[in-house]
Amino acid sequence: MEYLKFDVYLQGDEIMKEGSRDSTVYFINTGTVMVKSKESAISDAQLFSEGEHFGEFCLLMPYMKRPASVIAKTNVCVYSISSTDFEEVLSWFPSEREALEKVKFQRIKEVLQRLVRK
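Structure (tokenized):
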């Protein structure tokens, strides 16, 4: 069974839309993406590149709307996987699940801190 899907996005393409409901996690193979929300200025945007991932909120809170948009800052190649398939794969790798949980909670903390500042 194939779990990962390969996609290419061109500079400026919106990969993930703030406020949407989606159950996909993305892993950046090449390129750079910009993560921003309507509340944050462009200067507050986070950048992610090769080897990093985004969209993991759908794993922790599957019914939550996406807290930010992700836009290709350069041409980007990503692998994506649905949350259902991802959970199945993670069941084979408990140490990776633990590492991902730490990253997810750190990102949730960052989002909450931004909300509290407003």
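The domain at 5-84 is CATH 2.60.120.10 (Jelly Rolls). The longest helix spans residues 94-117.
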